[in-house]
Amino acid sequence: MELFERWESEVRGYSRAYPTVFKTASNARQVDEAGKSYLDFFGGAGVLNFGHNNPKMKEAIIDFIQSDGIPHSLDMATTTKREFMQAFVDTILKPRGMDYRMQFTGPTGTNAVEAALKLARRVTGRRRVIAFTNGFHGMTVGALAATANAYYRNAAGIPLHYVERLPFMHPLDGMDETYADPSAGYEPPAAILVEVIQAEGGVNVATKEWLQAIRQFAKDRGALFIIDDIQAGCGRTGSYFSFDGMDLDPDIITLAKGIGGFGTPLAMNLNKPEHDKHWSPGEHTGTFRGQGISFVAGKVAMDYFKDDSFMAEVRRKGEVMASRLQKMAQPGMEVRGRGMMQGIDTKDGTLAKKIVAECFRTGLLLGGCGSEGRVIKLIPPLTIEDADLNEGLDLLEKAMNAVLVPA
Amino acid sequence: MELFERWESEVRGYSRAYPTVFKTASNARQVDEAGKSYLDFFGGAGVLNFGHNNPKMKEAIIDFIQSDGIPHSLDMATTTKREFMQAFVDTILKPRGMDYRMQFTGPTGTNAVEAALKLARRVTGRRRVIAFTNGFHGMTVGALAATANAYYRNAAGIPLHYVERLPFMHPLDGMDETYADPSAGYEPPAAILVEVIQAEGGVNVATKEWLQAIRQFAKDRGALFIIDDIQAGCGRTGSYFSFDGMDLDPDIITLAKGIGGFGTPLAMNLNKPEHDKHWSPGEHTGTFRGQGISFVAGKVAMDYFKDDSFMAEVRRKGEVMASRLQKMAQPGMEVRGRGMMQGIDTKDGTLAKKIVAECFRTGLLLGGCGSEGRVIKLIPPLTIEDADLNEGLDLLEKAMNAVLVPA
Amino acid sequence: MELFERWESEVRGYSRAYPTVFKTASNARQVDEAGKSYLDFFGGAGVLNFGHNNPKMKEAIIDFIQSDGIPHSLDMATTTKREFMQAFVDTILKPRGMDYRMQFTGPTGTNAVEAALKLARRVTGRRRVIAFTNGFHGMTVGALAATANAYYRNAAGIPLHYVERLPFMHPLDGMDETYADPSAGYEPPAAILVEVIQAEGGVNVATKEWLQAIRQFAKDRGALFIIDDIQAGCGRTGSYFSFDGMDLDPDIITLAKGIGGFGTPLAMNLNKPEHDKHWSPGEHTGTFRGQGISFVAGKVAMDYFKDDSFMAEVRRKGEVMASRLQKMAQPGMEVRGRGMMQGIDTKDGTLAKKIVAECFRTGLLLGGCGSEGRVIKLIPPLTIEDADLNEGLDLLEKAMNAVLVPA
Amino acid sequence: MELFERWESEVRGYSRAYPTVFKTASNARQVDEAGKSYLDFFGGAGVLNFGHNNPKMKEAIIDFIQSDGIPHSLDMATTTKREFMQAFVDTILKPRGMDYRMQFTGPTGTNAVEAALKLARRVTGRRRVIAFTNGFHGMTVGALAATANAYYRNAAGIPLHYVERLPFMHPLDGMDETYADPSAGYEPPAAILVEVIQAEGGVNVATKEWLQAIRQFAKDRGALFIIDDIQAGCGRTGSYFSFDGMDLDPDIITLAKGIGGFGTPLAMNLNKPEHDKHWSPGEHTGTFRGQGISFVAGKVAMDYFKDDSFMAEVRRKGEVMASRLQKMAQPGMEVRGRGMMQGIDTKDGTLAKKIVAECFRTGLLLGGCGSEGRVIKLIPPLTIEDADLNEGLDLLEKAMNAVLVPA
């Protein structure tokens, strides 16, 4: 670790929480250079839905590289990109009857959000965006304005503008009339930006009813309805989109993290055609929009969604997780989540930190989220073997017991 | 191309300028699916300093993948990252006596700039940043505020705050006193953000003297001096940093594009330790900060800088480019650049577009930059063979003649 | 009127609603140059609490001018200013046990609000101020940011920053915890700015309970509690301050309009000493802060508050107004107010405009307020004779009947 | 002074510089309650162009009050207002062939500036306004953004937006092309706001040539050209407007301070009709726009401008002041000004403060301005008698000698 301490920025975080040097990884396991194997319930912060070094992706990527495929193409057309897009259209969009334009932004979630907000402001000619308490949307100034956490916001060093915050899952009673009254003082919003499940915010799950209400509010007020599905999408919750079956019809969907399959960067927004046409060519650019390796692996990932079997497995394993967590939960704790994004709200940031540290010690990687990190979030690879899943849950249970009942 | 027209966003740009579907690429050539080979003087917008599919990098990446190296690790410590960092320290920092902390941001240039501005604002407790006319620093709202071009700025849909603009290469006479006078009305700046060569801005080359003057101004006013070396760094100008030998001692250096070697995303800021210590852990995060493939290829790239031979070649080829361009230049045109970033300012955006189109037709990829795209920029891979370089220059000359002397 | 149409700005408003040229005025009557007498229920927009040309004030002002008193002194000390301040201390502050510092700002309400917001931001080191739907606080950019009405806001031509809006009289359930959670996304507010009765906003009356709740919220969150008593203060509601007896203990109170007594400008903030001491000398200035004539008349006005008899009369007349309005109100209409600020919400802006016009025709001046001007506001001089009050109410009733039951 | 120390806000300023209680005033003299008479070269911060208690104005005001004229009328039409407007049209506008609409804003300079900026933004649909180093335009947030002084700006407690600053009297070389280039990064400005003589900024006098250049720049860039003539207008410089004879044709002129004649508040913008028509009724309002006393006295003031004799006297007395100051000036000091606004730049704020204090001690009121208050500004009433003028200048000379040559 010396080199990191001497030469890496003080801003580094996870290398402090997990103070070891990792060398290899495979599906749901990371191994450090001393040979210690860790179960990975952290999942690369929601990226590694298909596991570390997914074998089919490895093979496809190596083939791609060996055949001099184009690793970096900005938004030029390539055969690799076309294959990815075709697979996404055939596997995801067409079966759902969804008509969207695919916009490849700079390959990070924050960039996807920035692009979505630009488009919403362009379409409506308005500036203010409504986002929600405890929402997380990224670190660059445009997206950070929508991110709630003060620790991140304060790092900006400048006031963050043009975002209005409403309480997540709070009833909208009277809000519609208030926003409609020009003398009430609310500017008509350009967009409502919401996560179906707030991952960083503490695994807070929105109900279908509330989401439909804010979707209707957006429609009534001429605002775009944007779902940030960066962490909860790509199969994480037991369906490809976290909002499948909710009849929400978002105007823009932001995707990143899992979309590139292998852990290499990719971000893609889905824009409704009637909004997308407001873009002029090259208005939102970015160097790394055309990532060949991510297209190749992302195309392999589509295979998981050709029928419901993989998603059914995710739902089944998600139930295992939820029921085990329910059993572990102490009085006052709360278990929340959907599919294979599950969290246990310990209501105590210090306690949660201790549990995470004890898990690391015993060979399980996971992280805290929510206020003061008090919610322990479990997002293992969707491809995790049952044995590993159970072992990880056992380790967590032991860690909780160890921390809660001091010797 | 049909699939792209039907399903990709209207924002796409390069696939319009280069209306073909590329399939493979090798060093300075891209081949489309019809088998037509193009010389690449566009270089992935400055990313592909070491060519498409650099053979040593291919080999190293395949080894890495086959051995289950960790492709995605956020800012956990990995052996791969350590090797990259060690190579960078040994090859770049130590020989120059530079002491900087390496901060891996979200793997895009715009994210690197956002992080740099955050740090400068944190260190100084100030808000305003000075940037320059025609500067380019990225597309996310924090960096976009520093970017000059109105086409990009307007796409934000919101006013861009906390950046003050000064004319690039304009003498600073009297500015120091004016900024020092508290009743003059200028806020003391948090930072001065400058490119040594404005790439997107039109291949505008700053002199050492002017850079030293603004560096001194920054020091006098307690502002951080930030060099954005995202496009001009990593060997492009004939030295690793574009400012090598200028005695500028920047407080922060932003790097991206070429740093990952292979065209996969990576971004890294170099922060002086006395500034870097103002970061708290995890204040600026991002999912894709730990890119194993980029670390592997980026480490291979370091081999090019172990002695001066590669840089000498770049300088030699840069001179070839410059002298050929000088010969092509019509009266009123201007040739500018350093090393293998060269531009010819046609002073006419429409003309430049025609030349770029004619080049594409005849098998040469390059792009326009500057006001109305009137400057044709040449940034081929630094590894380009002499034969390819000359052939590309021949094609450009012919295209200029064809366009300038209509049949 | 010709001269006004030819030479005055298109921005003029009241001369359009009352298209005649007024020549003299006395207590509750204005007379135009044709000799037509109008009952004045508009009261100079809440300024003329003591009537037009109050005889005692006239006498005092003439004495002052004849003896070469100082009409304009900025914030120099003058005997006239001292006498005003002494009277205010003795009559208003001491009997209530209130300890405040008097700050004379530029002599307009908007300037008083700007000063109050500056002080709150200075004291707390925070930026955001909470204001309420339908609130009105002035027209200059700092105060306008707190003003709700879109018609006024849009005239700014720039986004208005650093004010957050909450619904007036809406329960605060859960708000306290949300604001306390640093990861929820709300910045701690510098101040809460509220009117006890929203005058321009539509004669919306806050309850003591709600005011106490937001006062407590302010205290809990370290924010200053600012009452804008510019229109509702100075005796208008039947007590000197609109919040007398509510146990609210505001940190800052803004006063203007009625404070100068005669209709000449004056504005004065009352700042708690522990906040006031954060001012440095001359940080908030303004040319016309020291208005001799306003000090003289304002001192005379203090005589009205030496005992409760005048306020008792105001309460009695207010009840007359309220009960007459209740009788006039059609089903669906709503009567609101306190003391001699009463409004009838017709729920129909077009109807209200017709009633106002008919009143003007028949010799009664009053104005609309609230959304689309649908609330007819009655704020006659507090000194109005019963006969005039009744005559005015008769005229209003007739106008309503005339407009509601078209011939 | 006790009462002021106990009860007045800490923000008070002049009562600290002039620690006595004034009782009466007449023309160029103020007398304190102890009977000590002070020569007034401070002139109510530029308001009292026609002296304290101008006899003709006293008479007219008393007549007005006794005949129940309307002291407060918002923007209703009154006979008094009509007479003022008629006199202004006949005396000032028509002889100059000027066609402007008169807009009565809230009666303070800062409000006039806020209204002017609103109109400029409305007309152009742009946001940014160019103002100059050391400019002073007021204290409310919209105007304060244009004010340069950091002491005032910092009191805002919030960042000030939408104003860009250029160096006063600095040549514009290249600026026109830079602003015209959409990729340079400057937003097209809504307006250029300038003082012909910066009064608070240090009696800095712009040349006709520079003013014409920025006027042309404004025209070329589609920006409105706004002259803030609040302190330098109304005859102060020897002509009614400070820019008379400069062929500047401003789009908006802001007036306040001297326009009300007697020291009672009034502010008035002159808007070119083609701009003024962009206002909608009541978009910029304010309670105290219709000040009867100020209209009456302001009309009397017009008598001074019916022929050139008064202005000739001002110019003559201005020359006396300038030549006396030139004699007093020590090496390194600088005398600047025009007409009866003259300043001596001592280049030393501490020294200037001592001189001002010594003057107060010996019976002369004046104030510092410019950086650190190092410029002593002389703005006595234009109506000052020669004897008083000379006596004041003698006192200043003695004070300078006393301070410069310590016993």
UniProtKB/TrEMBL annotation, chains A, B, C, D:
Q: Which InterPro entries match?
A: Aminotrans_3, Aminotrans_3_PPA_site, Dat, PyrdxlP-dep_Trfase, PyrdxlP-dep_Trfase_major, PyrdxlP-dep_Trfase_small
Requisite cofactors: pyridoxal 5'-phosphate
A Pfam family matched by this chain, by name?
Answer: Aminotran_3
Which CDD domains does the record associate with it? OAT_like (cd00610)
Which keywords fit this entry according to its UniProt record?
A: Aminotransferase, Pyridoxal phosphate, Transferase
Q: Which domain of life is it from?
A: Bacteria
Task: Give the molecular function GO annotations.
Answer: transaminase activity
So what family is this one in? Answer: Belongs to the class-III pyridoxal-phosphate-dependent aminotransferase family.
Q: What is this protein called?
A: Aspartate aminotransferase family protein
